Each structure stands twice: as structure tokens, then as C-alpha cells.
UniProtKB/TrEMBL annotation:
Keywords, sorted A to Z: ATP-binding, Cell membrane, Coiled coil, Kinase, Membrane, Nucleotide-binding, Phosphoprotein, Transferase, Transmembrane, Transmembrane helix, Two-component regulatory system
Coiled coil: 71-100
InterPro entries tied to this protein: HATPase_C_sf (IPR036890), HATPase_dom (IPR003594), His_kinase_dom (IPR005467), HisK_dim/P_dom (IPR003661), HisK_dim/P_sf (IPR036097), Sig_transdc_His_kin-like_C (IPR004358)
Source organism phylogeny: Bacteria, Pseudomonadati, Bacteroidota, Sphingobacteriia, Sphingobacteriales
Cellular component annotations (GO), alphabetically ordered: plasma membrane
Species assigned in the record: Sphingobacterium siyangense
EC numbers: 2.7.13.3
Protein localization: Cell membrane
Record carries keyword Transferase: yes
Annotated transmembrane regions: 6-28, 352-376
Pfam annotation, one family: HisKA
Gene Ontology MF annotations: ATP binding; histidine phosphotransfer kinase activity; phosphorelay sensor kinase activity
Protein name, entry field: histidine kinase
Domain Histidine kinase: 391-610
Length: 610
């Protein structure tokens, strides 16, 4: 593969990787913003619900106390004034029924607050409207939504969704006393029919109780006229003087009495804290938070549950809601909570997105790196194979040329008549053919090793005898270069199981390399010893050695240590690759140590026969 092609591939893959990283970053940032917005909405809904519960709890508690007072007062009045016994009995009955009615209304109010907290644009409708337009699908086309802009108390313009319908002559009256709401599901600002949903809540009041209370109040009114000034409570007197109904005056008085108490006496911080935890837990928020309760501009309570917020309070988002909004006048207090570790909470909620994305990113980077490694490795292998082909061509060309020259010489009648010269030329042809055959066998062995088709015998082999035989066969080459072998085969257990021919080739290759890469006055030490259940054969020479960079590559196919323009060492770069592969197949291994210009040491480790 050309260099320009490799550069283009790397550039395109890098561009694709950067694009994926950018898209993942944008997706994570957008997801974080959405999670943060949902978190804010959940917390605001939770504290709004808590404020409503606190207000309802106070009203119910005060109503119980007031009821006990009224009961006690009624008992005292009955004992004092026997003439008012029936009046007091009716009064007590009315108050009891009102309390029941109040419980009904409180249940309704709680559900209504929850509904409005979830759907701020909810619209209450009459039951006749529901029966006429919504329950009859053919009349839903007359329903129209509109937006009305009104000024709030803060002189701000606020949009309200309004619901109306075209007039229909055959309107149907309501068939029950349930309270119904319409929840718009689409943006009413666009000129399209708005989809909606209907929510049904229990009645605001029990009709039977209301009828009974009305009847009792009429009866009490008759008794009051008969007993004009003979016995009224404070509310009755104020109502008579002001021309108002007694229940209305009583409600106003209760509200005034509640509002007179200090805010700190109206709240229990433990209850507030538990209510907040409960509401947040219902919205899957279980993180620690801090609480602040304010009265006008003064802080009444600062309950620090997490000290982390004290270090950087300006970057903390606070959520607030008014307390006791039902009091006459402005709300007397404000409840505020904030989360010091909001970012960590949102990040934890995004963990299910972040981990797979990181895993995919690492997988993509790994594939990119692996691809580059494979590309450079294949380029290197291609170059090495090119060198191998060049070397093989040179190695084949020399014996072929020699055979050709010897064959042509045999055609000469003078040489053909000389028997000794003919015999010499025949020996040359034979030797060169053997050399060619050896080269071919080495290439074929390489092919068999790669295809896993090389069959190895499994016979008992004496390593000491095998090494001695290989050394004896190479003594003549060693003497020709003026070198010598030092042999110390001290292993007492030298029988291994394997292929004798390939074992011979292993040691031949190692000794052949020692001779080829010598630098004069070659000295090769050959030792054997037993280490545990193995035999270790060491072949150490004082040749040219090699650097650490070459040491890591000598077992690769086709690799030869570069010698520049000098080609005095013949070979294909297959010997050590063959040695390592054969030893691996025979359950052995080979290690090497070398230092430049100081020599090389090979260790062949084989398991002995048990």
C-alpha cells in the first residue's frame, strides 16, 4: 500500500472519530440540560405540595381544637340554659356535619392541588358542559380553547387558557356531583384544534350533608328568632349585627386567629423535613438537601444537612415557595431548599447513558488503533516479503548459474575426455542441486507451517547425541573460518519426545547463524543441563551480536538484520521463525540474549520424557 493511501485512510478515520466524539459531546450536553430542567420541575412541585400539606394540617388541627371548644361550650350552655337545649343540639349537629364536610373538601382540595401542580393550565368545567360537549363525541367540535392575557399582582402579564363552546340547544344537565377538569395536551397558541384529557375528582362537598346542614340551619334560624336575645355565641352576635351569616363570620375569625400566631410556632421543622423527603422520594430524588425558612426578610431556620453548600453558595440553585398563602394579606413566610451536589445528582442519573457511550468510544478508538497497527504491519510484511523474494531469487540464481556453467563445460569434448574433470563437474552439479533442494524445502516447510499441515513425528530423541551429531557435521565449516566449538553436554536426562529431523534443523539453524554472523576468531559454547523437568541447551557465541530493537524482531518471518549495501550474509530470514514455530509445536520454547559486538546466547528449553 502506498504512503499516500495510508495517510488518506488515517486522515479519514481521524475525521470520523472526531465527528463521533463531537456528536457524543453534543448529545450528553443536551441530555444534561433536559435532566436539569426535569429536576427543577420535580423539586418545585415537591415543595409546593409540602406547603399545601402544611397549610391543610394547620387548618385541620385548629378545627379539632375549635371543635372541642365548641363542644365544651355547648355542654356548659346546656347546663345553664335549659331553654336553649334544642338550639345547642342543632348547633352541635351543624358543626359536626360541617367538620365532615370540611374533611370532604380537604380531600378534594388535596387532589386538586396535586392536579394543578402537575398541570398548571388545567381548566375546571361544569358537569353540564361535560355531559353536553365532552361525553358526546359529535359535539366536541364545538369546543374552543383561547388564551387570555391578564395582569398579575406583580404587574406581570400572564397567559391563561380559557375553554368555551358554541351554543347547543339541547344541553344536558349534570348527572352527578363530581368535579371535572380539562387538561390541554397541545400548545393552544397554534391555530389547530387542541387535544385534551378529562380528569374527574370527588365532589367538593357531600350533597346530602349540605342538604342536612341547610335544613338544620333553617330550623336553627327559626329558633333564634323565637329566642332573639336569650342566648347567642360571639359569632352569632357579630353575624346579627353585621347582617352576615354565622358560618362566614366564623371562618373569617378562624383565619385571623391562625394568622396572629408567630410563624415559628406554626411550623415543626422535623415534620417539614420529613414531608420534603417524602415528596422528593415520590419523584425519585433521594439526595441530601438544605432547608431555609424565611419570615418576611428574616431567616428563622437554616438547617444545614450537607456542608458542601457552604463552600460555594453562589453557584447553588435554590427552590422557594410561599407558606400559608391562605392567610389574609401577604404570605407570612417562605420555604427554600437547595442541593449542594445537584450536578452530581444529575450526572448519576445519566450514568446509564455515559457508561455505554464510553464503552463504545473506547471500542471505536481500539478498533482505529488496531486497524492502524494492522496497516503498518501489513506494509512491513509486504516490504519483508519483497526482500525475501529478492533474496530467494539471488539464492536460486547462483546455483542455477553454476549448474549451467558446469553443464556447458561438459559439452566441451576436451573436458568430456578428462574423467576427473567430468567427475568434479558432476559433483558441482550435484552439490548445487542439493543446495537448490534445501532452499525449496525451507520454503515448503514455511508454507506447511503457515497452513498447519506439517506433520511431526513423536519419537524418543536423545538431545545430547543429536547436538553432538549436528556439531560434528559443521566442524569442517568451523575449521574453514578458523573457529572452534566448546561442548559441555552435562544433562543427565536428555530424552525428549519429538521429531528428530526437525530437532536437527533447529540446532543446525542456530549454529549456522552463529557461523554466518561471526566477526573472526569465532568461539561457540554449547552446553546442556537439567532444570526441573526440562533440558536446557545453551548456544553462546562471541559474534557481532545485535541491538535491543532487532532482538524483538528476529523471530518474525522474513526479518533480517539490515546491513546496508553489504550482502555478505545469505539467507531468507526464515530460520529463526522456523525454529520458534517448531519448538512451539514440540512443547518447547527458545529465549535469546544479545549485546551489540559482544555476542549472542540462545537457550532451547524442552520438556524431558517422564
Amino acid at each position: 500500500m502506498k504512503k499516500n493511501s495510508i495517510v488518506l485512510i488515517i486522515g479519514l478515520m481521524s475525521l470520523a472519530l472526531i465527528g463521533v466524539l463531537a456528536m457524543q459531546f453534543y448529545f450528553l450536553r443536551d441530555s444534561y440540560r433536559q435532566k436539569s430542567q426535569l429536576f427543577d420541575e420535580s423539586v418545585n412541585a415537591a415543595i409546593t405540595a409540602v406547603a399545601g400539606k402544611l397549610e391543610r394540617r394547620e387548618v385541620v388541627d385548629f378545627a379539632k381544637v375549635q371543635q372541642e371548644r365548641n363542644i365544651e361550650k355547648s355542654k356548659q350552655e346546656q347546663a345553664k340554659q335549659r331553654l336553649l337545649a334544642e338550639q345547642l343540639e342543632i348547633q352541635y349537629r351543624i358543626e359536626e356535619l360541617k367538620n365532615k364536610q370540611h374533611v370532604v373538601f380537604s380531600n378534594f382540595k388535596e387532589q386538586e392541588d396535586q392536579l394543578r401542580a402537575l398541570y398548571p393550565n388545567v381548566i375546571e368545567i361544569k358537569n353540564s358542559f361535560y355531559e353536553t360537549y365532552i361525553k358526546r363525541p359529535e359535539y366536541q367540535k364545538f369546543i374552543k380553547f383561547s388564551v387570555s392575557n391578564e395582569l398579575t399582582d406583580d404587574n406581570l402579564v400572564q397567559a391563561f387558557i380559557m375553554l368555551n363552546a358554541s351554543k347547543v340547544d339541547d344541553q344536558i344537565s349534570g348527572k352527578d356531583d363530581s368535579t371535572r377538569f380539562v387538561i390541554p395536551l397541545m400548545d393552544p397558541l397554534v391555530n389547530q384544534q387542541t387535544k385534551f384529557r378529562v380528569a374527574t375528582l370527588p365532589p367538593r362537598e357531600n350533597a346530602k350533608l349540605a342538604k342536612t346542614i341547610s335544613d338544620l340551619e333553617k330550623r336553627l334560624d327559626i329558633l333564634n328568632r323565637k329566642n332573639a336575645w336569650s342566648g347567642f355565641n360571639v359569632y352569632d352576635s357579630v353575624a346579627m349585627l353585621g347582617g352576615k351569616k354565622a358560618d362566614y363570620i366564623e371562618d373569617v375569625a378562624i383565619g385571623m386567629e391562625l394568622a396572629k400566631r408567630p410563624l415559628k410556632d406554626r411550623l415543626n421543622v422535623i415534620i417539614v423535613q420529613e414531608l420534603i423527603k417524602e415528596e422528593l422520594a415520590q419523584r425519585d430524588i433521594k439526595a441530601p438537601f438544605n432547608i431555609e425558612i424565611w419570615s418576611t426578610n428574616n431567616i428563622l431556620l437554616n438547617n444545614i444537612l450537607n456542608e458542601a453548600a457552604l463552600n460555594n453558595p453562589t453557584n447553588t440553585t435554590k427552590y422557594s415557595t410561599a407558606l400559608f398563602k391562605g392567610d389574609i394579606g401577604a404570605a407570612p413566610g417562605k420555604l427554600t431548599i437547595y442541593f449542594p451536589n445537584k450536578k452530581a445528582i444529575i450526572a448519576d442519573n445519566m450514568g446509564y447513558l455515559l457508561l455505554p457511550m464510553l464503552a463504545l468510544l473506547f471500542l471505536l478508538v481500539g478498533c482505529f488503533a488496531y486497524t492502524l497497527i494492522i496497516i503498518f504491519r501489513q506494509k512491513k510484511v509486504s516490504e519483508m516479503k519483497t526482500d525475501f523474494i529478492n533474496n530467494m531469487t539471488h539464492e536460486f540464481k547462483t546455483p542455477v548459474a553454476t549448474i549451467m556453467i558446469a553443464s556447458e563445460s561438459l559439452k566441451d569434448p576436451d573436458i568430456n575426455a578428462d574423467h576427473k574433470r567430468v567427475q568434479k563437474l558432476a559433483n558441482i552439479i550435484y552439490d548445487e542441486n542439493v543446495r537448490l533442494g534445501n532452499h525449496i524445502e525451507r520454503v515448503l516447510d514455511l508454507a506447511r507451517l503457515e497452513k498447519e499441515t506439517l506433520k511431526l513425528d513423536q519419537v524418543e530423541v536423545s538431545i545430547n547425541d543429536l547436538v553432538s551429531a549436528v556439531t560434528d557435521s559443521m566442524q569442517l565449516r568451523m575449521q574453514n573460518i578458523g573457529g572452534k566449538f566448546s561442548i559441555d553436554l552435562a544433562a543427565t536426562k536428555d530424552i525428549v519426545v519429538g521429531d528428530e529431523l526437525h530437532f536437527s534443523n533447529v540446532f543446525y539453524n542456530l549454529l549456522d547463524n552463529a557461523i554466518k554472523y561471526s566477526k573472526g576468531d569465532l568461539h561457540v559454547n554449547i552446553n546442556s543441563k537439567n532444570v526441573g523437568d526440562t533440558i536446557v541447551v545453551t548456544i553462546a557465541d562471541n559474534g557481532i551480536g545485535m541491538s535491543r530493537d532487532h532482538l524483538q524482531k528476529i523471530f518474525d518471518q522474513f526479518y533480517r538484520i539490515p546491513t546496508g549495501n553489504v550482502h555478505n550474509v545469505k539467507g531468507f530470514g526464515l530460520g529463526l521463525s522456523y525454529v520458534q514455530d517448531i519448538l512451539r509445536r514440540l512443547n518447547g520454547k527458545i529465549t535469546v540474549k544479545s549485546e551489540k559486538d559482544k555476542g549472542t546466547t540462545f537457550e532451547v528449553i524442552l520438556p524431558i520424557k517422564k
